[in-house]
Amino acid sequence: MFSTVLGNVFSIPTLMAIFAGVVMGISFGAMPGLTSTMGIALLMPLTFAMKPEIGILLLIGIFVGAIYGGSITAILINTPGTPSAAATLLDGYPFTLKGEAGRALGIATVASAGGGIISGVILILIAPLLAEFALRFSAPEIFGLALFGISIIASISGDSLVKGLMSGTLGLILSLIGMDNITGYARFTFGSTFLSGGLAFIPVLVGLFALSQCFVSIEDIFEKRAEINKITRALPTKEDLKTIWPTILRAGVMGTFIGSIPGAGGDISAFVSYDMEKRVSKHPEKFGTGIPEGVAAPEASNNGTTGGALIPLLTLGIPGDSNTAVLLGAFMVHNLIPGPQLFVDHAPTVYTIFAGFMIANIVMLILGLSGQRLFVKVVSIPKQVLIPSIIVLCTVGSFAINNNFKDIMVMLVAGVIGYFLTKGGFPLSPIVLALILGPMAEGNFRRSLVMSQGSYAIFVQRPMAAAFIAVAAIALLYPIIKAIIVNVRRKEAS
Amino acid sequence: MKISRKFIMTLMALVLMAALVVGCGNGKSTEEPEANEGNQTEVEDVETDDEPEADVEVGDGKVDYPAKQLTITVPPAAGGGTDLLYRAMAPKIQEYLGVPVVVVNKPGAGCAIGFSAGAKDPADGTSVTAAVAEMLSVPYAAEVDFTYESFDPIANVNSCYGALTVAADAPYDTLEEFIEYAKEHPGEIRIGNSGIGSNWHILAASFAAEAGIDVVHVPFDGAGPAGVALAGGHVEAVPVSPQEVDVHVKSGKAKILATFSPERLPELPDLPTGKELGYGNTILTIYRGFVAPLGTPEDIKQMLDEAFQYALDSPEITKFMEEQNFAKHYLSDDEFLELMEREDKIYGEQFDALGLSK
Lengths: 494, 358
Prior knowledge:
By secondary structure, chain A is mostly helical. In chain A, 76% of the residues lie in helices and 1% in strands.
């Protein structure tokens, strides 16, 4: 079988499919508004006529490439290309401001490939074990995870915690719009059918980051502020690699773990890993100013979720996120029914997919490192040309999500709000974090209570849920406790 | 001075963009089909690559179809099971009608956006809407401007039914034992469903009412996550279709007790139906068919019906549906309307009973 697998993987069509998938994935990911899920869904019909392993590896290539591609725009133009890259811009864009865009891209590429490969190793070695563990995750546990995620707002708020919390609250309020998913009650919809499903996430994300950034840049043009088009460094240094490898390891494992939980994906894992790195770091105050760990953590983590999401898909037939949900369809088309039986009936195909997944990550590394000289040129494009192009992309992307014109309105309104918030010094990342996690926390909190018939004991009795909630509480209260300790010490000293 | 000029410039850019959008918004009827066309060329290319035989010359059809193009509005999102079926059928419909057939997804708000848009399409044969069972539930759940009566039914092509699936190690092996257990443990059985007011929620509520048992309905974001919760032991039962729990049954984590279908399912001949066991009212059809905007001329509907039958009977679609587990279920316009009328009553009753009606 070993030789069959090798023969399958290293055949020209397979390698070409992986290569094409990664290239398309990177382009999809880098364009604001076009997501990995959309790329996979769009290309899926093309794979029906291919051999199963080739078709599926093409789609996996897109998945892997798109999650990485989102970081390119996050670093270069302060706009996450995919929701998963929303945490990358925290430290990625400051690099660009310093004229070191190439260095940040290099770190992101190495970290993405590293995270992906770590998740691949975990996928191959302990997939069935981790899948059984992930099955024990239900509403109370996911609520705990989401609550912990929301507590991260404190660490991504930048200069002002109060402004960060205000942004976070705005995000939570926006996430309330739409049909309440436990009682079916319409909230803040004002009788509009469009709003009854809630705000579509991508248009809000694109508007908040990309469009508001365009408005800010328009000001730069008229003020004739110094253009940042000098690029001093193109590749990460040896020291950079030395600093980030423990980060990649931690974030990759964390990403794989979170990715394997059905219902949690790259967006939350990137924020969690960023926060974790900040906590273990010896110099947490430098996060947000453009340091290698700040780029490596979210990137290794969100690519870690790619392998992680494949774990429940392949072993249990359960998609871990929206990308793998579409992939599940592709498996079914080829009569490969994911689940334990897949490993028995189609072992060579499964191992070919494993090997192809690893190769996809290596292809991504090569493409990313060789392509970044090209990518950084984006920064040198005159703003007068770049900004209209970005606005066109934002508009097309927002429309393409649901083929709905009203989503463009949402994007525009979000852009205007984002512009004024930026002017007022409010960080935008907490809004995105709250938009992702608000519905997740609320829905699962109330689902838990339905499951326990109103008893709050469910959050204490289930050990994993209790642990997450405890960690969230400590994370929230830690600054207060720290302040008290410092105060006491100061008094003792004086 | 400088600041104010900068501010004015920025403001002007904002106003310009707003004007652009509003302008486009007003010209929506002319703008949108264009945009759709642009969007679709890509998808169509993909499809013709996939099935070269579907690559027919426009005007080469078997009938003289009056409209220049047929747009199928699909309310569920691209890439899902429903979307796949309509996308697979589109080239064959095109072959019959001889005009381009494009599939446009209008997802969001639990299919409400797609149906709302579909009902407003021109009734001249240029548009049909993919009819799925959410068409019946959504009008009860939310403030929307359509019901199933806002459309002219044309044909149904596929139907699936729910089944009662429980954990493999549960102490009950038949539907009767399950009901008995539920009666002994009132309020302890948790039935996971695919969302509040969803088809499977209504099916579960309708079953509980007919069996006279007191259960807790736990809504999840779709049938998939509900099945996962069953496999993980977080709920006791799910009412979703056998296909949706197939992996859990095959992996030995779940067992199906009975199906809620009018007759035994051909793929599961050993499973009794709820009807055989005396619960004949607990049937909801998760149908997939075609409806046209109200007032579409009879002759056009006739041609469309023939085109859908032609596609449904073609060897390609037959093979596709078999492989993808879509059971063929053709219903003519009158039969389809009858089905929707019957089931609309069930939705109405259960939404009232659950206190979910808007």
